[in-house]
Amino acid sequence: MADSDYESVLCVKPEVHVYRVPPRSSNRGYRAAEWQLDQPAWSGRLRITSKGKIAFIKLEDKNSGELFAQAAVDQFPSIAVEGVTDSSRYFVIRIEDENGRRAFIGLGFVDRGDAFDFNVAIQDHFKWVKQQSELAKQAQNPDQGPKLDLGFKEGQTIKLNIANMKKKEGAMGSSKSRPAGFGGLSLLPPPPGGRAPALIPPAGEQLPSCPAVFQPASAANTDAASSWTQPCGPSMAASADIWGDFAKASGSASTQNQQSTGWVQF
């Protein structure tokens, strides 16, 4: 079944009244006060349906559902449905029979809420018709839709503050930089207690606890010979002997040799 063959119900009101409308004498609009509202020509049920783009206002019998009159509305607002100037509960609709003859009749609702629903149902239908028409046009011509233009217009420029960007980059770099040690490695903090880390000697060797220091002869006293001394105390010198046989030499010959050569016994 095609969409144009499907009929949907938009609104149903159980009680409405129909009035004879006198010819309109001027272009000022219809007035419900001229219709003899206490003597309606017909009363029954109203049903609004839609089939494709057209909405149908159907007046039916309350009990049997027999059709009394029908008004086809192909656009809104139009002369097919018009409101009166003196009330919001009454309208003028254009009905048409099977032979194509047309007439204008007055339509009245007992409650103002029913009249509001009647008006909104017709408006919503034609809003939907307009949306469907726009979607169909976009589907046929997708390139003709609105496009987002992000390019610069003629004479349009932008300004960048490079100075502030460099300052921000410098501040970020200084906050992230760390002092590097030898070979690009970071220096470790000193151990607790303020002591420097102990040096570990190679395998098979022992570091001296107190190294010897060479003292050359001064320029003022040229007769004095250069000598080696140990700045450490006697106990440390005794515990760390790195000179081997020099400390073990004994005898007068060794003493004379030391006096002549200037060697000091450790």
TrEMBL record:
Superkingdom per UniProt: Eukaryota
Main location as per UniProt: membrane
GO cellular component terms listed in the entry, alphabetical order: clathrin vesicle coat
Compartment list: Cytoplasmic vesicle, Clathrin-coated vesicle membrane
Protein transport in keyword set: yes
Function in brief: Involved in endocytosis.
Name listed for the protein in its UniProt record: NECAP endocytosis associated 2
